[in-house]
Task: inverse folding
């Protein structure tokens, strides 16, 4: 009888080892599956991120291209106004007759460019000397305003000849108050120079463009 016990013990040990080996094999496979899932998820997430980034870059480039095509005519119009004969004559001589001519040119320009909400000429002190609202409406002298503290004037006066300054998109302010209904504006400004004054700006010409579906 006693001779059979070692065989029983050996058999039980083998079973325990077999069970341990099977459990260890099962855990190893389970961990491998988790690792594979994590790697697959990381690769898939990376591909998705790259696809989204490529799509957004393409969208930004398309937007930039579209904006450039829309803004180039504005730059040309601003140069045309700044270099006009009435502008040069008024800066050089400051005669009322030249000022009236400049108003007339700006009013006609405004009627031909309905996207422009405002056209104005500010002198070197930031005072409006000419202001034309959309549709060619000339603002009378007693309604002209001091814009010396506005960012678009300060930025324009820092620019060299021929360089256009673009303001941030902000709300229009009239007589010190935000205009109602709210009117978001982009302002393009260029310094104008008196030939006799050398590099010192004599004022700035500003075109205010109101973003719209036609802009």
Result:
């Amino acid at each position: 009888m006693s001779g059979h016990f070692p065989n029983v013990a050996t058999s039980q040990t083998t079973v325990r080892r077999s069970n341990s080996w099977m459990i260890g094999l099962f855990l190893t496979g389970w961990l491998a599956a988790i690792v594979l899932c994590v790697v697959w998820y990381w690769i898939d997430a990376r591909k998705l991120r790259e696809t989204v980034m490529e799509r957004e870059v393409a969208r930004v480039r398309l937007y930039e291209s579209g904006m450039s095509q829309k803004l180039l005519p504005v730059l040309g119009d601003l140069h045309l106004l700044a270099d006009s004969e009435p502008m040069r004559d008024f800066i050089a001589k400051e005669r009322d007759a030249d000022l009236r001519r400049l108003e007339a040119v700006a009013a006609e320009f405004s009627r031909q460019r309905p996207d422009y909400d405002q056209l104005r000429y500010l002198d070197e002190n930031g005072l409006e000397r000419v202001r034309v609202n959309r549709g060619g409406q000339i603002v009378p002298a007693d309604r002209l305003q001091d814009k010396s503290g506005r960012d678009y004037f300060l930025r324009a006066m820092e620019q060299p000849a021929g360089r256009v300054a673009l303001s941030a998109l902000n709300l229009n302010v009239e007589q010190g108050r935000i205009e109602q209904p709210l009117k978001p504006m982009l302002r393009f400004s260029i310094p104008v120079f008196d030939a006799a004054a050398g590099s010192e700006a004599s004022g700035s010409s500003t075109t205010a463009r109101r973003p719209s579906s036609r802009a």
